[in-house]
Design goal:
about 200 residues, globular
């Protein structure tokens, strides 16, 4: 669907330079999704893996030629609807560290340096993805989601980083009780969409 060089605005790598590759197609359908235009894969042109990788290298080196490895974040839509071994191999060969953000609802594929699992109630994550996750990032839309977040935390390994993130449209309402919850449940951290606060892609 799109690709761009910016900073990672969320989760463990928040604030780090990152090249985003957003793939079209999603079968999860979160009603609060802020990229609904990604859902229909057929609405977007097709590119070869070589074209995607070459563009990533060109756009990053045009800005900072000596900074590799840069994080390449494959996202969506739901990126695991695609088979990702060849794409991630090409990105790693080009010098990128490969990260994915996924709901975990489709089978895991690809060679990953970091897996961010952001599970959704609308389509539960597969156990294999939960067990492979380096980071669990749960979007909080209401207080009941905190209970659901704890259920998801039981599915990942003890080494997995845990984050609660307010849904952007409800951030003013839900952030205060997320903060209170983290104070009494310090195994969680707070993730904010800082790219939206500072108005970058």
């Amino acid at each position: 669907m799109e690709s761009f060089y910016t900073i990672q605005g969320e989760g463990f790598y928040q604030g780090k330079a990152a090249y985003f590759i957003r793939l079209g197609g999603c079968d999860v359908g979160c009603f609060w999704c802020d990229v609904k235009e990604s859902w229909d894969a057929s609405a977007h042109p097709l590119y070869t893996i070589e074209q995607i990788t070459e563009r990533a290298v060109q756009e990053v080196t045009a800005v900072t030629p000596d900074t590799f490895p840069v994080i390449a974040v494959v996202t969506g839509g739901e990126p695991l609807m695609h088979e990702l071994y060849e794409l991630t191999e090409a990105l790693q060969t080009a010098g990128f560290a490969t990260n994915i953000e996924t709901s975990g609802s489709s089978p895991l594929s690809g060679y990953w340096d970091w897996i961010c699992l952001s599970p959704k109630k609308f389509k539960a994550p597969l156990p294999e993805v939960a067990q492979a996750a380096n980071e669990l990032k749960v979007i909080i839309y209401n207080k009941h989601d905190l209970i659901w977040a704890e259920e998801q935390a039981k599915l990942v390994l003890p080494s997995c980083k845990l984050y609660l993130q307010p849904e952007w449209g409800k951030a003013a309402e839900v952030t205060p009780y997320i903060v209170d919850y983290i104070k009494t449940h310090p195994h969680w951290g707070l993730s904010l969409q800082i790219h939206k606060y500072i108005n970058v892609p």
